[in-house]
Design goal:
Blueprint: H1 2-5, H2 34-51, H3 54-67, H4 74-86
């Protein structure tokens, strides 16, 4: 993603979406374009790496996929499976 967009996570350090404050669990996430989606995914990934709890990470990923099932088509699911197989 960094190669594609030249540093997706560019923004003030310690902030979410450049607002200067950390995001809280109840905050609304606004994702307008691919760059927003990748920036958010990167920040979530950093948080998951920070706590390193496999069970919480697995639960999070399952919930994201479950909540997105109405918008994910067969090609998107195939790409997700390929990504998981690379791991």
């Amino acid at each position: 993603a960094d190669d594609l967009f030249g540093g997706v996570d560019s923004g003030p350090k310690g902030s979410f979406g450049g607002t200067g404050k950390a995001m809280q669990s109840g905050d609304k996430v606004v994702l307008k374009d691919l760059k927003d989606h990748l920036r958010h995914a990167k920040k979530v990934g950093e948080c998951i790496q920070g706590h390193g709890k496999v069970n919480l990470c697995a639960a999070f990923l399952k919930e994201v996929i479950q909540q997105s099932k109405d918008v994910l088509d067969d090609d998107a699911i195939t790409d997700i499976i390929k990504s998981c197989n690379v791991i």
